[in-house]
Amino acid sequence: MILIAASEKDPAGVNIASCLREDFDFEKTGRGSYAYEGADAELVITPNRIINEDYFENRYPGTEAILFITRHVSKEGVSSITAHTPGNFNDAQYGGREKTLCISNPAAQKLAICTMEREREKNDLDFQVTLEATHHGPLTAVPTTFLEIGSSEKQWKNEDAGHAVASAAIAALDYGTITCKKAIGVGGGHYPEKLTRLMIETDWAVGHIIPRYAFPLDEDIIRQAVEKNNGGTTAIFDWKGTPARSQYKSLFESFGLEILKTKDF
Q: Which of 259, 220, 3, 180 is nearest to 90 (CA)?
């Protein structure tokens, strides 16, 4: 089973959940969740903040993956719909555990981002579609993906954005059925434009993304990114956006990864 989860305290999550029930075949269950008739998936609403819901999957035996539908906060206030994997390269100010990554779901992220882009174009949606670097909690032990609306209350309640992210969540349910090349992303900013275009325009799927602000990296965090990327033997570097790039190229290669550069595409 795949969980789609929102917090009742999160206006973006409530918006997306409402759009899911409006646009797709969800039926309320006796457990208070909503079962999706198109796949083995359930929509659940928690009273708690999502970033504090460590091991959320343990409440729902048989959970194979989680899609958290939430708000995205940014000081710049940019209108955006985003996808990313949870985890912390350093401290854990916003949930999870310090220097601990979750299991990524590159195929789900690819399906979500590509669907967001199609919805943006189809509906002339004035929102930026972007991946985000791996960040924040909660800590989970199954493949986990965040699908978000940013970046302030005006955007969180935008129904067009809610419908777009709802469609992305449904598309992501098919992550186990698609064939794609999987990779780790390295370097660049928090919103990795080059990797986002790569996901949309090629058959590559990027899981964990390590931004330049997470550097310097120790070997353990690189090992986690490799082991918890959920597939792939490649690291794609934003070469100009990676500190000490030659040093880290060698370090990633020592973990058996092929190194490609975004400019190669």
A: 220
Two tokens, residue 25: 């075949």
CB 143 within 8 A of CB 66: yes
Tally of structural domains, the chain: 1
Please tell me the distance from the alpha carbon of residue 31 to that of residue 3, in angstroms, as a whole number: 14
Sequence-ordered list of residues with C-beta below 8 angstroms from that of 177, at least 6 positions apart, any chain: none
CB 110 within 8 A of CB 85: no
- Edge-to-edge strand order for the sheet containing 234-237? 204-210, 181-186, 234-237, 258-261
Tell me the pLDDT tens digit for each residue of 235-257: 999 999 999 999 999 999 999 99
98 burial class (0-12, 13-18, 19+ CB within 10 angstroms)? exposed
CATH number for 235: 3.40.630.50
Q: Which amino acid is at 251?
A: L
pTM for the full predicted model: 0.97
CB 259 within 8 A of CB 235: yes
In whole angstroms, what is the distance from residue 247 CA to residue 217 CA? Answer: 11
- Its domain, for residue 40, covers 2-264
